[in-house]
Design brief:
The protein contains twelve helices and twelve strands. By secondary structure, it is an alpha/beta fold.
Length: 395
């Protein structure tokens, strides 16, 4: 079977996903087009040799409803004969795009493929695709009566199950900003981030990071779901999730170039990484955010590795309770968990996050000499993706 390698990976800066955010005046198609152009320019490949463009996007409504990868490819002036497809596995959409790209190369369906993700949460607000609709139906309503839960309530239940205090959640959130700010100061994001031209100028740095964030400051924020009415269903729930210890609504895009090892060698390209193993699984749809636990066990089994082999883990910070519960379950060291900050500081542009995390994880492994990294994403509906990434330049 052909071996699949990652030749390069880039991302946009992260912009606040609201009107007035740094990227809010950029159409998501144009945002992704700029990232695709940068990826191809950096590698110097003939874009006409790309077999497919796989794009994760969670909110396939409005400006993201017309196969955004196809429109972005055309907007960038790239060859018309190259197709695209949109992939939706909620927050894991971009990671699933990467998994499918690798699987396509290994299966012999592709020699050269782009895996990407895009989400403009300022222009296509979360939940736009289902406004006024019931996405669950009668069968799910009966099975999980009195009903499934919003993700924020699931995050509260995770915090309760793993006995995570409000102080622990806020301390973790402050650390995310601290680590991301340090990464910026050290130039750690320079290689992976490409500038985006907007009507108001060029955006070249993440807008979402708040240097100087402290647990004391975060402690002043109100619990976001305390007045949601769910206290009647869970009367003993001590609400702890706030806007400060949850991921930020964000605009962003990321893309990776995946090739067969033979194709990369023929073009004289030096691969940066490879996916050793990947896994997907479902878990309790009420707790919803616990899928990374079984997904981690499954991907480690498939890779033949243990967590002792993992130099860094990216556990998506949908809410602080998610990586903290994962850490409590596995006993993973603090300094190797989300070492450059996560979605609390860098933001969570839903469909793009999986591709963004892989881009950041690869850069971190290269900069630190680590060989293996693990990445996992919780997803709505109680699902998760996980992968093990190898830095091919490791000693």
């Amino acid at each position: 079977m052909p071996a699949a390698v990652i030749v390069d990976a880039v991302r946009s800066p992260m912009g606040r996903g609201r009107p007035g955010g740094a990227l809010s005046d950029v159409h998501p198609v144009d945002l992704l087009a700029a990232v695709l152009t940068a990826l191809l320019d950096r590698t110097g490949i003939d874009p006409g040799t790309v077999d497919d463009v796989l794009v994760g996007c969670a909110g396939q409504a409005g400006e993201q409803s017309a196969t955004p990868g196809r429109q972005a490819w055309l907007a960038a002036g790239l060859p018309e004969h190259v197709p695209s497809v949109t992939i939706e596995r909620k927050c894991g959409s971009g990671q699933q795009a990467l998994d499918f790209a690798v699987q396509g190369v290994v299966a012999g369906a592709y020699e050269t493929v782009v895996a990407a993700g895009v989400e403009s949460m300022s222009r296509v607000p979360m939940g736009s695709a289902r406004l006024g609709a019931d996405p669950f139906g009668a069968g799910v309503a009966r099975r999980y009566a009195p009903g499934l839960l919003p993700q924020g309530i699931a995050a509260e239940l995770v915090a309760r199950k793993w006995q995570l205090s409000r102080e622990a959640l806020d301390a973790y959130a402050a650390r995310s900003h601290e680590r991301a700010a340090k990464a910026v100061a050290d130039g750690a994001f320079a290689r992976e981030t490409v500038p985006i031209t907007t009507p108001h100028g060029v955006v070249s740095a993440d807008e979402t990071i708040r240097p100087g964030t402290t647990p004391e400051g975060l402690a002043e924020l109100p619990a976001a779901f305390a007045g949601s009415g769910y206290h009647r269903r869970f009367p003993d729930l001590d609400f702890k999730i706030t806007a400060g210890n949850a991921s930020q609504l964000t605009d962003g895009a990321a893309a990776l170039l995946v090739m067969s090892e033979e194709r990369a060698a023929a073009l004289g390209l030096t691969p940066r990484g490879r996916i050793v193993a990947s896994a997907v699984c479902g878990d309790d749809p009420l707790l919803m955010l616990t899928g990374p636990l079984p997904a981690t066990r499954r991907v480690l089994y498939r890779s033949g590795l243990t967590l002792d082999d993992i130099a860094a883990a990216e556990v998506n910070e949908a809410f602080a309770s998610v990586p903290l519960a994962w850490q409590a379950e596995f006993g993973f060291p603090d300094d190797r968990l989300n070492p450059r900050g996560g979605a609390i500081a860098l933001g969570h542009p839903l469909g793009a996050s999986g591709a963004r995390l892989a881009t950041t994880l690869l850069g971190h492994l290269e900069d630190t000499g680590g060989r293996y990294g693990l990445q996992t994403m919780c997803e709505a509906g109680g699902m998760a993706n996980a992968l093990v990434l190898e830095n091919l330049g490791a000693p």
